[in-house]
């Protein structure tokens, strides 16, 4: 038993040859799964046969509506549900569009073609942003491609969701910051405003680090992004978006999206049978912890990997509205940790903790829905703990380690 514990503590239980085989097997299986979802009859298919019941249906339908001059339609729940029913032939299936019109601007090109082509193109676009981010962090294309074997990647792709886009933008922004290209960092962060709930802790981090160039870049990018959507669609969809702002809270509190599919502290409390009021108190406490952790680490600690782990984990801990596919953003701190562990070795339990997060991130919904075990917040807390452990180990006065491709501008 002591030998097993030692291997787990030191991370020596992972065998490189077996890991290489697992990566290749997983990548091949993912390609087959994606093809099967499109071609083989399965629950994703619908009576009309023209679309698939994935979250991407919401994005595609919203883009189609915008292209015919109705960009506010996705924010009218009744009208948008009726339109989706006409596309799928399934009146029970509905996917809300809770994003600001800036995201509508991003998905607009995908509405110009039929669904399957758009679905494949959207998946490839997410990978095209995610892969360079992994390459920029880890340093080689071989290891970047290996990151695609993480189950969270195929979970995102099969959902037709945008978490790879979020992870790619976050990864590239943080690499730019590490390389002291702070204004570019801000520009990339501004694009993340298409999904604002994932960026709640970014202003805290930038203020704690006193990074005014990044703050300015983010402001410029966010404003230009919003103005571009206004130029494309007018003010009506923005007014409709704010008018339906309450819908996200109603979905959360009423469990219209099963709490087991979500990753927040609020949803975990509801899975455990606690009332909405108590769950909000728990979520508020998590938010306070997240703010303190980010503020202290980004103010006092210079080790960049510690900063990344704390920032992204705290961001997920702070938001009440995030689903299983949003855990894909944890692959960004995972990539930083893998880079550092490969070059300088890891801290005790670091490799094992990282393996748990990467391998369990895609199945937290199953734990929550069928076993009543809200595992997702625990995985987020593992990444937070890894970041805090690194912050403690490196100390406030330890300079940040340079990445293999770091530089200045």
Gist?
With about 400 residues, the chain is mainly α. Helices cover about 65% and strands about 0% of the residues. The C terminus is likely disordered.
Protein described:
It is a single chain. With 409 residues, the chain is mostly helical. The chain is built from 21 helices and no strands. Helix 17 (304-318) packs antiparallel against helix 21. The longest helix is centred in the last third of the chain and has 25 residues, at 276-300. The model is unreliable at 396-409 (pLDDT under 50).
Largest sheet report: none
The tally of structural domains comes to 2
Determine the fraction of residues in helical runs and give it as a percent range. 55-70%
- Beta content comes to under 5%
Number of DSSP strand runs: 0
Structural class: mainly alpha
Count every helix, treating DSSP H or I runs of 4 or more residues as helices: 21
Key descriptive features of the protein:
single chain, 67% helix, disordered C terminus, mainly alpha, 2 domains, 409 residues
Strand and helix map with partners:
Layout: H1 2-10, H2 16-39, H3 56-67, H4 77-88, H5 101-107, H6 115-138, H7 141-146, H8 151-159, H9 163-178, H10 182-191, H11 202-208, H12 212-233, H13 236-243, H14 246-254, H15 265-271, H16 276-300, H17 304-318, H18 331-344, H19 350-360, H20 364-370, H21 376-394
Helix pairs in contact: 2-8, 3-4, 5-12, 6-9, 6-18, 9-10, 10-12, 11-16, 15-16, 16-17, 17-18, 17-21, 18-19, 19-21
């Amino acid at each position: 038993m002591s030998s097993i514990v030692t291997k787990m503590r030191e991370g020596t239980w992972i065998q490189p040859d077996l890991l290489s085989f697992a990566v290749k097997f997983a990548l091949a299986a993912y390609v087959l799964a994606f093809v099967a979802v499109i071609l083989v009859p399965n629950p994703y298919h619908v009576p009309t046969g023209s679309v698939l019941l994935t979250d991407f249906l919401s994005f595609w339908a919203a883009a189609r509506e915008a292209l015919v001059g109705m960009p506010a339609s996705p924010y009218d729940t009744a009208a948008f549900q009726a339109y989706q029913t006409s596309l799928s032939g399934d009146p029970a299936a509905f996917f809300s569009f809770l994003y600001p019109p800036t995201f509508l601007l991003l998905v607009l090109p995908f509405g110009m073609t039929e669904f399957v082509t758009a679905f494949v193109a959207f998946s490839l676009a997410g990978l095209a942003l995610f892969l360079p981010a992994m390459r920029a962090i880890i340093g080689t294309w071989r290891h970047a491609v290996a990151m695609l074997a993480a189950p969270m990647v195929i979970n995102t792709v099969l959902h037709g969701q945008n978490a790879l886009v979020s992870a790619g933008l976050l990864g590239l922004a943080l690499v730019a910051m590490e390389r002291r290209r702070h204004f570019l960092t801000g520009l990339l962060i501004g694009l993340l405003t298409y999904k604002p709930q994932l960026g709640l802790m970014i202003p805290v981090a930038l203020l704690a680090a006193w990074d005014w160039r990044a703050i300015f870049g983010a402001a410029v990018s966010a404003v230009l992004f919003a103005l571009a959507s206004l130029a494309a669609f007018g003010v009506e969809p923005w007014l409709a978006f704010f008018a339906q702002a309450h819908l996200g809270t109603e979905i959360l509190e009423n469990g219209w999206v099963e709490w087991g599919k979500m990753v927040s502290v609020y949803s975990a409390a509801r899975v455990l049978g606690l009332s909405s009021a108590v769950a909000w108190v728990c979520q508020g406490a998590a938010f306070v912890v997240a703010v303190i952790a980010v503020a202290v680490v980004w103010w006092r600690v210079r080790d960049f990997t510690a900063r990344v782990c704390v920032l992204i984990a705290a961001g997920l801990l702070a938001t009440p509205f995030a689903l299983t596919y949003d855990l894909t953003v944890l692959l960004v701190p995972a990539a930083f940790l893998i880079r550092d562990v490969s070059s300088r070795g890891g801290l005790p339990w670091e490799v094992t903790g990282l393996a748990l997060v990467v391998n369990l991130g895609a199945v937290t919904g199953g734990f929550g829905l069928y076993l009543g075990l809200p595992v997702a917040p625990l995985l987020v807390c593992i990444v937070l703990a890894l970041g805090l452990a690194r912050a403690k180990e490196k100390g406030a006065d330890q300079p940040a380690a340079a990445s293999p491709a770091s530089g200045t501008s």
